[in-house]
Design brief:
The chain has 366 residues and is an alpha+beta fold. It has 10 helices and 18 strands.
């Protein structure tokens, strides 16, 4: 979905997707059900391994024989607060965005594991800035304008724009557009000329998607909240406010270089709808249809990751989600995947699938 990088930054190097696991603590429902903890992670951070006990055998021998180990780049446990997540995960990528690289952060996992909390968190302002429980997006907004306004070399010669796209039942909507003017958006592709000796690439765009100029972080946060208030959500047995759609919040940065040229970079912040077991969630009729659409698009995402790992042609066109994330998976974008998981036994199957997904994604090269 990102714009092609400028020639000054283009090269022939490759870089693996950075994969992070965030495990929340047990919620009230899991505690009330006396669902035991089956995930072994540090309280905060400090390891690259996640151990998952897949059986009810709590003996030493039983745990050893039934424990699966998954390797990723970083693991954050229940004690990791929003500040630690931002500094350890998003901040390094944010620095690359400021340098002119296209970047993507996306949160993946079962419904109810904390993806929206990780990406958005608390949207309230505290003393004119973000709250301690604010997620990655508010922190990116405030850090972006702080860095730009304090950069004396720029002399305020910069432009920041944002957009917010919702993918619901394979339909694209501009959430920042007024409701009475909101229509289904179409994806189109365009051939982009690249460096001499390097093959031309196809860039994916959304036709008629509006980008809004943002003057400061508070303006950006207000736009984000306005859009998210219209996001499709509903209550299921697995999550009281389950997101029924994927959202992509994009920031475009134009920094003046020289007399007439601007360097353009884009940061995509993606909150994926949660995968879910339809029978467990109690979804019926419309909810079941939504869950089916979500699971199909996430399955398509999994197929793309598998194809990239196996050096096969990825089926990007299988879903709107994979088409829009094409450049973030195997393309020219620096990418971080945050896999959110539950620690409880009752979610063991879903947790195992998320960790398998995450550990495989670690082998994707951009």
């Amino acid at each position: 979905m990102g714009s092609p990088p400028t020639s000054a930054l283009s090269d022939f190097s490759t870089e693996a997707i950075n994969v992070v696991v965030r495990c929340r603590g047990r919620n009230d429902k899991e505690i009330a059900a006396k669902s035991s903890v089956v995930v072994d992670v540090p309280n905060k951070t400090g390891t690259k391994e996640v151990n998952l006990n897949t059986s009810d055998d709590t003996s030493v021998v039983g745990k050893i024989s039934s424990t699966k180990t998954f390797l990723v780049d970083q693991v954050f446990g229940p004690g990791a607060d929003q500040d630690l997540i931002f500094e350890g995960v998003a901040s390094p990528l944010f620095d690359e965005f400021l340098k002119g690289f296209n970047c993507t952060v996306f949160a993946y996992g079962q419904t109810g594991t904390g993806k929206t909390y990780t990406m958005c968190g608390d949207d309230k302002l505290v003393n004119g800035s973000y709250s301690p429980n604010a997620g990655i997006i508010p922190r990116v907004l405030f850090n972006l304008f702080e860095k730009l306004e304090n950069d004396t070399s720029l002399k305020n010669d910069f432009i920041v724009k944002c957009s917010l796209v919702e993918i619901y039942n394979e339909s694209l909507k501009d959430l920042l557009n007024p409701r009475n003017n909101r229509k289904e958006l179409k994806i189109y592709e365009e051939c982009i000329k690249t460096l001499a000796g390097k093959p031309d690439k196809t860039a994916v765009y959304i036709k008629d998607l509006e980008e809004y100029c943002v003057k400061n972080a508070r303006d950006g946060l207000q736009l984000l909240n306005r859009g998210l208030n219209d996001r499709k959500t509903s209550s299921t047995n697995m999550n009281k406010t389950s997101s029924r759609s994927h959202t992509i919040f994009s920031l475009s940065l134009f920094k003046k270089e020289g007399d007439t040229e601007y360097r353009h970079s884009k940061m995509n912040l993606v909150d994926l709808a949660g995968s879910e077991n339809i029978s467990r969630s109690g979804a019926t009729e419309q909810q079941a249809k939504e869950a089916g659409s979500i699971n199909r698009s996430l399955l398509s995402l999994g197929k793309v990751i598998n194809a990239l790992v196996d050096n096969k042609l990825p089926p990007y066109r299988d879903s709107k989600l994979t088409r829009l994330l094409k450049d973030s998976l195997g393309g020219e974008t620096k990418t971080v995947l945050i896999a959110n998981i539950s620690p409880s036994k009752m979610d063991c199957d879903e947790t195992a699938k998320t960790l398998e997904y995450a550990s495989k994604a670690k082998n994707v090269m951009n």
